[in-house]
Amino acid sequence: MGDQKLKIKALTWSRESSGLFDYEKSNYTQSSFKLSESSYLLRTQEKVYSHPNDLNSSLTENSRVLAVLIKSAKNFYLTPFKSLSDKSITVEKPWLVVKGLKEHEYKISEGDVIRLGKVKIKVKEIEVLRKTEQKNFPVHSKKLYNGGLGSHFLPKTERTSPIKMDYITRSEDEYFHQGTMKITDREELCEQRSCRICLSDDTNILNPLISPCYCMGTMGLVHIDCLQHWLKSKITFNSTQNVKVYKWKSLECELCKFKYPSQIFINDKNIDIISIDKPQGPYIVIETLTEGFNTMSVVSFDNKHIMKIGRGHDMEIRLSDISVSRFHAQITLKSNGFFLEDNNSKFGTLVKIHKEISLDTDYKLQIQCGRTLLKLTPKKPWDCFSCLFGCNKGKDSDSEEMERFSKEYNEETFAHNL
Ligand SMILES: [Zn+2]
Ligand SMILES: [Zn+2]
């Protein structure tokens, strides 16, 4: 049987600079080797080498784990290193190099973390919706199962639904206890039941007094309306034609530091405490992960299909960090989704690898781990028998999986093709 071998070329940038790799310069330390068994890829200073698949055998003090390559019966898998209890092991997480892909582009899915220079952005939400205008053309009877008899409109809930934010630190169940059950406790405990913001004790079903955080006593209760207004005042907003940017330092209780979620569950209902306007056409919501503050950008592709990302003033999505090139990358709306492309940027456009990647034979892959660029080439030893009867190359299972994870999109409903 043809057994996959893995050719690895490693380039390590001589400078240690926040895990960046300079794609423009050429002062690298290079090493090449082949793998035929499961291995760890390690780096000590500038030297990259493989290590048998058990870390019990000694790791030298300065070595870092770059990637784990697991050999199965047929091929290799690249897996991110699962953290061990041993905290002394330093790990450089693997990132996919977008321009290293054969197609030079990557289809964005919800939950992707993209890195441009030092800036990380997270894709919170993707919506590729049909436009609202109605077209007067006949519907084919044999395609009626596909629907399309009604007029095009967007359900209101889809446009106003809240963005799920990740900083919910308590589960919904816990929140239910904290948010509603405790109110009844406090009815007995607190003599003065008034809102800590407006000081009023008026309460009704639409605007109840709730206990949203860990604060107790006179500071414990607040009207849901008052909380919403107060949170809104902490968010700064600005917009250009295609991008709406919401920025805030933190949405937490100033006293107990509890981070508020975007929704809370009261009286059998989810209530938004932070809502963000969504466009009617196709859009992406991205969150920029920077220290100090949060930025949420809603990028509308309604009348533009290419959005440039970079440090330059003419970019639709502006990232002001110096490690970001002036015109770093772009996102293009196509009939089957949003695609990310690198624009020969200095420090590259990378996508975080959260999952196992099955390495397909003869499909090269570039991975960046800190300041090391790994070029992986899976090869099958030349085998006359298997060539005669077809090499039996499987379908690319990863892209199929990616398809499943991104929102289904029907080309025929795309307004531009109508
Ligand atoms: Zn109030
Ligand atoms: Zn509090």
TrEMBL record:
Keywords, alphabetical: Metal-binding, Zinc, Zinc-finger
Pfam families listed in its UniProt record: FHA, RINGv
UniProt-listed Gene3D superfamilies: 2.60.200.20, Zinc/RING finger domain, C3HC4 (zinc finger)
RING-CH-type domain ranges (all copies): 187-263
Keyword Methyltransferase set for record: no
FHA domain ranges (all copies): 307-356
GO MF term list: zinc ion binding
Protein name in UniProt: FHA domain-containing protein
Organism of provenance: Stentor coeruleus
